[in-house]
């Protein structure tokens, strides 16, 4: 749900199931202060009700419903292009069945020619959002994305609402993350103003692993002077 042209409406949405119970409610999950519910998997058959409301303001609005089963599928190694802007604020894609069957860890990258364009990139799994980013440069990536089973995974490319918008290229390929190997320490370096760093490893279901953090001082080589 988004306001119409010239409207100062700050939108809100609520979705009711066939029994009248609340499935979801949202204020600002869309672009800017726009409301968006989903992607979500509807568990029951029947007539659903959408309540179009406002957080503040008033005016005209546009309400859209999208069947994501008809969204185009992304295939590994095959880039797709699109455009996001005020009158077309988002595009939806599915991570295709081939990727779900053959890959478990994937990398999703987006490139736009204008570093101020900064399109949002969000991935939703069967239980809700998996990962999201707003590019700080011409190219941004989500890596790794872990795909499990044949459940639907949805990718949303969204306009940031701060610029006129523009074109983008979206690419799904293999993850570039190096997995930890049992018995081999993974080294890293954290600066005082840096957040946490992520490391990944693969494990079978019901297995047990022990992770031991070790703090150490890197070896400092002597300085050699030449006279």
What does this structure look like?
It contains 1 helix and 14 strands, in the order ββββββββαββββββ. The protein has one helix at 97-102; strands at residues 2-3, 10-16, 22-26, 49-56, 61-62, 73-74, 80-84, 90-95, 105-111, 120-125, 128-134, 139-146, 154-158, 166-174. The longest helix has 6 residues, at 97-102. The chain is globular, with a radius of gyration of 22 Å. The strands form 4 sheets. The chain has a 5-stranded mixed sheet. A 4-stranded antiparallel sheet has the order 7-14-9-12, with no helix packed on it. It has a 3-stranded antiparallel sheet with strand order 3-2-4, with no helix packed on it. It is mainly β. The model has no long low-confidence stretch (mean pLDDT 83).
- Strands of the largest sheet, in order across it? 6-8-13-10-11
Give the fraction of residues assigned to helices: under 10%
Distance between the termini: 73 Å
What is the count of β-strands?
14
Determine the mean pLDDT. Answer: 83
- The topology string of helices and strands comes to EEEEEEEEHEEEEEE
Largest sheet: 5 strands, mixed
Query: What radius of gyration results from the CA coordinates?
Result: 22 Å
From the spread of the alpha carbons, the general shape counts as globular
Low-confidence stretches: none
Q: Report the portion of residues in β strands.
A: 25-35%
Structural class: mainly beta
Q: How many helical elements?
A: 1
């Amino acid at each position: 749900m988004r306001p119409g042209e010239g409207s100062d409406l700050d939108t809100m949405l609520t979705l009711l199931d066939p029994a009248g119970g609340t499935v979801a409610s949202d204020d600002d999950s869309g672009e800017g202060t726009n409301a968006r519910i989903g992607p979500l998997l509807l568990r029951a058959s029947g007539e659903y009700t959408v309540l179009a409301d406002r957080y503040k303001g008033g005016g005209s609005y546009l309400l859209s419903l999208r069947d994501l089963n008809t969204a185009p599928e992304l295939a590994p190694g095959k880039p797709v292009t699109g455009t996001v802007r005020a009158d077309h604020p988002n595009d939806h894609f599915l991570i295709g069945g081939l990727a779900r069957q053959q890959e478990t860890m994937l990398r999703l990258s987006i490139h736009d020619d204008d570093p101020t364009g900064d399109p949002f990139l969000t991935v939703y799994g069967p239980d809700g959002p998996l990962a999201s980013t707003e590019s700080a440069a011409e190219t941004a990536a989500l890596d790794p994305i872990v795909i499990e089973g044949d459940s639907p995974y949805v990718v949303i490319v969204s306009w940031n609402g701060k610029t006129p918008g523009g074109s983008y290229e979206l690419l799904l390929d293999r993850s570039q993350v190096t997995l930890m190997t049992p018995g081999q320490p993974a080294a890293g370096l954290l600066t005082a103003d840096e957040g946490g760093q992520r490391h990944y490893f693969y494990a079978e279901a019901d297995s047990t692993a022990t992770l031991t953090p070790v703090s150490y001082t890197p070896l400092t080589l002597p300085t050699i002077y030449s006279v």
